[in-house]
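Bench notes, afternoon.
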Amino acid sequence: MKRQIVFGWLFFSALWGISEVVLGGSLFGYEIPYASIPLTVIGFLVLSLARIFLPYFGMAAMIAIGAMLFKFLNAPLYKCHYLGILVMGISFDVFFSLFKIKQRWLSAVAAAYFNNLAFAVLMIYIIHYQPWIQNSVEKLLNHVLISGTATALLSAILVPLCFRQAEILRLKNPTPFQWRPSLVPRIISLASTLFWVGSLAVFGYHIL
């Protein structure tokens, strides 16, 4: 069981981390407006998939920490991005593990708004991050009402669909992260290993 949890954690952390490195790097690199919206939705989708296979309280936050580590190995250090990933994991845990609201779409909406509000409050009032302090009220309202609403609407549609697809996958293969002589678990375990080995290789290339 512990090995399955570790393999699952590695896989979902790497999956989320890759989206942050590849898509996030492109969106922020080209200064695309509201880049946080697709990144947050993707993060919630990865956590929705993980929730079906690893239904433990705190697992979303642990996967977020893993994604932060994966992103750290491949991208420049932007503290707000790493904090954003962690807040996403905690927000998902709060509304899908702690509160356990029956309607998944409602949990997704609540998690999206909470995520954006918590992140903005942390940036402005707790950390006093300089880019957020300027026009702080405007940025807070924009992040909650505009980005938060767009994220909430997309999450309300996509998160329940992801849950249902994950449940179908679990019916077909209840323990995909268990190492045994079958194709699917081996592919998943190998993919997780390759993700992290590749990440370490890129990190080593940048520092050498």
